[in-house]
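wait is this the right file?? whatever heres the structure
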């Protein structure tokens, strides 16, 4: 069988249950667990579930470009590292700028200059150094600006790949979100191959609707085969809503990313 580690996001599944119960359900089903805003969680209670946590939000506020925003991002990243230690979470996720509860940028930026690119790279270098000191990995996630996150700078997978490659640190990797990439760019198989050296994890959901694999236009088994053929054995995380039954959604996800040995 393939060597993928399968994870699922507790924010989007079993949403009628208290959060700790969601975590337990995913853990009992054999999945690594991902969460978003750690500031709203009882981290000690989550640690007591025995679940293996794979990813969490790695900052509370801030941005990559302006000096005040960069300082705030780095300051809250240090707080996030302390939180990650409680649940032993190896990867902490960041974006081009802080997002509000609706996923919109706190400070929208429609035009990104050359100076902005240099400033973002410098901030990410400092973030990678912070991750190295704590033995954790920060992941920079691509987003889409068409449907979910208009006005976010450095949103495309091409942008995040360029920044992560420029920093070139094992403590800064890509969170390659194929749901966002399909909306914004497409050509997913080729994108996975080009991004492979810098991938920290891959996230999936189908398009349109952001539900589990098999509910939209992406042929996830083909993506899974392409990743396996490149030798990728890391995390594939379903960051998706259930079209109907969460148990069915998880099994569809598992089936899409289970590659039989040949």
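ok assuming it is, sequence goes like this
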């Amino acid at each position: 069988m393939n060597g993928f580690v399968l994870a699922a996001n507790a924010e989007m599944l079993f949403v009628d249950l208290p959060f700790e119960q969601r975590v337990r359900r995913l853990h009992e089903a054999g999945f690594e667990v991902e969460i978003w805003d750690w500031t709203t969680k009882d981290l000690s209670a989550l640690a007591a579930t025995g679940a293996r946590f794979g990813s969490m939000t790695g900052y509370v506020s801030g941005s990559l470009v302006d000096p005040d925003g960069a300082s705030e991002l780095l300051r809250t990243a240090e707080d996030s590292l302390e939180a990650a230690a409680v649940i032993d979470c190896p990867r902490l996720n960041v974006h081009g700028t802080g997002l509000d509860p609706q996923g919109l940028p706190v400070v929208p930026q429609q035009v990104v200059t050359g100076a902005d690119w240099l400033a973002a790279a410098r901030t990410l270098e400092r973030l990678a150094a912070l991750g190295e000191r704590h033995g954790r990995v920060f992941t920079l996630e691509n987003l889409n600006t068409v449907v979910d996150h208009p006005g976010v700078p450095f949103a495309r997978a091409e942008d995040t790949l360029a920044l992560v490659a420029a920093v070139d640190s094992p403590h800064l990797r890509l969170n390659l979100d194929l749901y966002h990439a399909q909306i914004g760019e497409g050509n997913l198989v080729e994108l996975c191959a080009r991004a492979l050296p810098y991938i920290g994890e891959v996230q999936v959901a189908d398009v349109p609707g952001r539900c589990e694999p098999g509910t939209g236009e992406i042929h996830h088994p083909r993506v899974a085969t392409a990743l396996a053929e490149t030798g990728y054995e890391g995390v594939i995380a379903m960051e998706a809503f259930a079209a109907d039954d969460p148990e069915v959604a998880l099994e569809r996800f598992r089936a899409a990313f289970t590659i039989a040995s040949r």
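Strands lie at 5-9, 32-34, 53-57, 91-94, 137-141, 172-177, 199-204, 235-238. so i think its the right one actually
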